[in-house]
Fold this sequence. Notes:
Layout: H1 2-10, E1 15-19, H2 25-34, E2 38-42, H3 46-53, H4 64-72, E3 76-79, E4 90-93, H5 108-120, E5 126-129, H6 137-146, E6 158-161, E7 180-184, H7 187-198, E8 204-207, H8 210-241, H9 245-252, H10 276-284, H11 292-318, E9 327-331, H12 346-356, E10 360-364, H13 388-392, E11 396-399, H14 408-414, E12 418-420, E13 435-437
Parallel strand pairs: 1-2, 1-4, 2-3, 4-5, 5-6, 7-8, 9-10, 9-11, 11-12, 12-13
Antiparallel strand pairs: 6-7
Amino acid sequence: MIKALLEKIKTKKALIGVVGLGYVGLPLTREFTTGGAKVLGFDVDETKIKKLNAGKSYIEHIPSSMVKNMVKSGLFSATSDFKQLRKADCILIAVPTPLSKMREPDLSYVEATANAIAKTLRPGQLVVLESTTYPGTTTEVLLPILEKSGLKAGKDFFLAFSPEREDPGRKDYTTKTIPKVVGGNDKNSLDASVACYEIAIDTIVPVSSCEAAEACKILENTYRSVNIALVNELKMLYDKMGIDVWEVIRAASTKPFGFTAFYPGPGLGGHCIPIDPFYLSWKAREYNMATRFIELAGEINVAMPEYVIQRLMDALNDRKKSLNGSKVLVLGLSYKQDIDDVRESPSLELIKLMQERGAKVDYNDPHCPRTHKMREYDLKMTSKPLTAKMLKSYDVVVISTAHSKYDYKFIVKNSQLVIDTRNATVNVKVGRKKIVKA
């Protein structure tokens, strides 16, 4: 059975099924079709399905022309009919793994997908989970659900984990060039998943198990979370000491060894860093162990929006104004520079906190023309034009995301007060008294 699957994969006759056509699944689909494989995409969102089959994209860094070419080539189509999963030889799962309100893993999307696959699972299929999660999820959660089909992993079907490593907005690395870590439930599963990803990805990094691959991704994002928390804490300390943390980081970065620069901000954003470490922290409780670094980093990073709000209120107070009743413009809705991804963006939390305190809040983002309903936010807002007249009408402008399209000299010149959470105004020489770092 494994020989037949490997032959199909190596001759590119295998149909690749990608479940979840978002910021992970769609770029992955692009690379498989570029590599000459046929892909059938699955998503529960009918709007996405209609757009994709019409050759239209809803992700900024995946142009519609690229989707159109994928469809016209006959290598890609999308469906919301999960009964079609039976057709796929390799099924790659790229669905969300958020946290619950109690900051515990929410595997409902993974479980729902696994149940859908189990209904149509046939001998010889490969199933790979890409969604970031705690070590043990593939074998403890996914495997038992799939085996409800009556088929046995390693014998009748093959199972693996390969963490997504997407970083929207990067120019130096792409889905194709970022090395792909793969861990199989058994040797045949590993061989099949390695062969599958070799169609689309330049470098494959096999590891000994699904658990090792799961732990790899958690380590990557915990490393970043802890180091970002460190500089966020130092930012708060250095602010009190009258020291510019950004200058300190620049100076420390000149050391050619032993130091990697991380930068503070108004809070963590994206689907990985704010969430993944808590998955590991939750799993650690099963072993009666407290992950103190992770939990402390989480506390610091989660508290950053409140710190920004306090700095904002202090700055307004110095000007004999209160946040209650003030007009505020937030610059940047996405969680990082030059992308349209707003998942877990600290801008959303900042807007909510300011509205709760009575502020009249608007936003501008050249990459996000309007807000959309999310699990925790439904702001119903549209991006305001960034003109001199508009800027002058606000009591304060908050730079939450430092998009490169922004003219910061123009922004400072025409604003009454600027709260800079990203050091975006570092090169602005005029109007420095208007700028408050936060």
